[in-house]
Amino acid sequence: MARVTDTYAKEQRWVRPNLDISHRCILRCPQCIRQKHTSQDQIRRSFDIEDKDFQKILDYYPNITFCGQISDPIYHPNFLNFLRMADEQKKCLRIATNGSGMTKDWWYEAYDYGLGRNAWYFGVDGIDEKSELYRIGSNFKEVWKYMKLGRDLGHNVVWQYIIFGYNEHEVDEAIKIAKEEDFSLVLVNTNRGFNPNNPLLRKNVDFKLTSPDKKHLQERVKKEYWGNMTTRMEHWHKIQRKRKEENYDTI
After folding, report:
1. How many CA atoms lie within 13 A of 205 on its CB side?
2. In this structure, are strands 119-123 and 184-189 parallel, antiparallel, or unpaired?
3. Residues whose CB is less than 8 angstroms from the CB of residue 249 and which lie 6 or more positions away in sequence, other chains included
4. What's the 3-state SS for the chain?
5. C or N terminus of the chain, fewer CB within 10 Å?
6. CB neighbours of 161 closer than 8 A, spacing ≥ 6?
7. Which are the contacts of 70, defined by CB distance < 8 A and separation ≥ 6?
């Protein structure tokens, strides 16, 4: 039993925890848990994680994901400080965001941290403003600009593209654009519903989604697959594996 416990402890440290660090988001995505009646109490009792608690997580895990279920990480009031803290300890971050609503100065500071260690995943569901049909409240042109800024500054930028009925015919074009722009592209077949009359949805949900072809639908767990992976992203994955191999026996 002791050997099993020791092995679990070693492996657990290399599991990348996913943190939902606040209750904040400015978007109104129709399929998000935030748009359901059943989630409102959860949102109301949520709070912003404090620096001291994030530090405890940093001290244990070498790799961390920020991908909110009821929040977007960039809207945490201290998120830039979290990036700084992780950078000082040379931790690797995966940051999933819609990317809207922050200033140019904010992005320059965010990109000051974690160069070569952080990967930024931007939710942009299409090749143009049709992305805003799902990402209600986002600004396609603004997000695209800051994706290119991150790329130009040397960061891993990943374009995350959920496939809907109104963008599935543009997947091949998206792959072409990703290669031209040197973005990694993750395509997502969603398992979330397309019923605008779902009784769980709040009354103010603006539901304009159209269901894709069956080949792009999932019945249970969503499916993610690479449409394009840059050399930079391949290197990022190699870094993760190398860090684990070099440090596994010291834990």
Report:
1. 23
2. unpaired
3. none
4. CHHHHHHHHHHHHCCCCEECCCCCCCCCCCCCHHHEHHHHHHHHCCCCCCHHHHHHHHHHCCEEEECCCCCCHHHCCCHHHHHHHHHHCCCEEEEEECCCCCCHHHHHHHCCCCCCCCEEEEECCCCCHHHHHCCCCCCHHHHHHHHHHHHHCCCEEEEEEECCCCCHHHHHHHHHHHHHHCCEEEEEEECCCCCCCCCCECCCCCCCCCCCCHHHECCCCCEEEEEECCHHHHHHHHHHHHHHHHHHHHC
5. N
6. 124, 125, 126, 167, 171, 174, 185, 186, 187, 188, 227
7. 20, 23, 25, 33, 34, 39, 42, 43, 46
Given the structure tokens 């700084």, which residue do they identify? 84
Q: Which two tokens stand for residue 145?
A: 């600009």
